[in-house]
Amino acid sequence: MRGRKSALAIVPTPADRAEIERWQRSTKGPAGLARRGRILLLLERGLTLKDTAERCGMSARHVRKWAERFRRHGLAGLRDKPRPGRKPAFSPRGGVAPGQDGLRATR
Q1: Whether the Cβ atoms of residue 64 and residue 43 lie closer than 8 Å to each other
Q2: DSSP E strands: which ranges in 1-107?
Q3: 99's torsion region: left (phi>0), alpha (psi -120 to 50) or beta?
Q4: Closest C-alpha among 78, 60, 57, 76 to residue 6
Q5: Cβ atoms of residues 6 and 49 within 8 Å
Q6: Cβ contacts of 45 within 8 Å, gap of 6 or more
Q7: Which long-range contacts (CB under 8 A, 24 or more apart) does 41-44 make?
Q8: Percentage, residues of the chain above pLDDT 90
Q9: Residue 66: alpha-carbon gap to chain centroid
């Protein structure tokens, strides 16, 4: 293997490993979680950050970020954080968004 060995030792618990493997098999879960789980599994096998980044289609910087988040927060650290911005005016399912009465003034 080329590249330096990483100081980030990833050692998931058996329960965490089972959950990550479930993400890998899932066809309906978020793709981001599956990718982040794959990063952890590759790092656990001993691949370098650079090799892991190449296999996952990311930069080594992002691989390091997700590995460090996992070490600090466990599996909860791999989930997306809430994004800033305006609340949606319409719900994604086509109904009325929370806090809206469903009526709009027309001109």
Answers
A1: no
A2: none
A3: left
A4: 60
A5: yes
A6: none
A7: 43/6, 43/8, 43/10, 43/67, 44/10, 44/11, 44/12, 44/17
A8: 52
A9: 8
For 57-94, the pLDDT digits (tens) are 999 999 999 999 999 999 999 988 888 888 766 666 66
Using an 8 Å Cβ cutoff, are 39 and 63 in contact? Answer: yes
Tallying the residues shown for the chain, one arrives at: 107
The closest alpha carbon to 36, from 20, 54, 55, belongs to 20
Q: Which two tokens stand for residue 60?
A: 């080594």
Classify residue 19 as left (phi > 0), alpha (psi -120 to 50) or beta: alpha
